[in-house]
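Consider a typical record:
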Amino acid sequence: MTTPQYRSGPDSEDDGDGAGSPDQGQSGNGHPDADRTWQSLALNGRPDAPVPPPPPEHQPRQLAALDSHTVADRIQPPQAIPQLHGAPPVGVRIGVWGASGSGKTTFLGAVPIAAMQHRRQGVNWVVAGMDPSSTEFLHDSVDQLVSKQRFPQATRAQRDLRWSFNGETQGARGRGTSRQMSFALEVLDLPGEAFNPRSNQVSEDLHEQAVTHLTSCGGLVYLFDPLLDANQQTASINYFFGMASQMAARVRDEGRLLGNGRLPHHVAVCITKFDHPDVFEPALRARWVTQEQVGAVPRVPDDQAQGFFDWICNSFRGGSARLVRDALGNFFHPDRMSYHASSAIGFRLNANNQFDYRSYVNVEPDGQRICGSPPTPINVIEPLMALEEGLRGTAERQPRDGKQWWRRK
């Protein structure tokens, strides 16, 4: 909120220093100064006029008439700024980055659903908004994806999301040592075009906010859409290289580059739309997909996810996708990267909650509605967990002698 400042009127002889002179009976804020009024009235422009003493202190002063704001303030006390609930983010700011149409909003909308379903995998997550708008986004996302079976509307303007994550991991099959996990996720959800420096569909200010936000984040979820990348207008390289180079320039000027010249961020690379037949079928034929048992949800094993991404860029997609793969390794340290075959809605499951290869497509032919099976997100929570673990490990390795930890690996 900007506080109105005093400005000289068109007939004023103020010399432009922004403060009223004593012979105008004005203080620096432009209001009559009761301690100076008696001087200006007595002098009346004559420097040789005697200066009368100030009025005795026991004489009551005439109070100025109360303006409407003063009356309102006495009737109704001023309202404090809105208070955010919960603990502030503990050093965890994660940005979601990807080309226009890569599914950033749907990915974020699937987070609360994935959190609820993740209990089946031995982790109990409780996700809650840290301000009213973030809470509303969680509620609306579940309503759209589950109840109305529709995809959330793409982001058209800036939206700040702040969520708290509290979870407990269990050992394999319920055995082993559990670990408490608690962190806050702060995301600046922006239109995809904000990440394209050459786009004229968003304002320069919005693009500037995108660069500033991603630069300040400790972790990044990078969404790579193999299908959109085939379109020249939405090729991932258009939304990656320009942003990464601008981020590198800022981090360099701040002295935060790693010793090898790379950015200090931790990055989770998500190959999206794993459920789509145009991605799933080629990956199946190339033997990247495994199924633990009949009816289990197919997946790409974690230790093969990076190879799967290389295959997507080299063989499946080719062209500029290879440049994105090379640029990721050029700008970010490989020890700070993880890879995930992801889907925000997952496969269609049968009535027994099992995967059936005869009918697994979870999107209606019109591409707008989700099929009757509730969304079963794949690798939506896992990238966030990988980033939290990486950032926590980096913080624990930070030396206490005040040296710059980001120059270490």
About this structure: The two ends are 42 Å apart (CA to CA). DSSP finds ten helices and seven strands in the chain. Residues 397 and 403 are 12 Å apart (CA to CA).
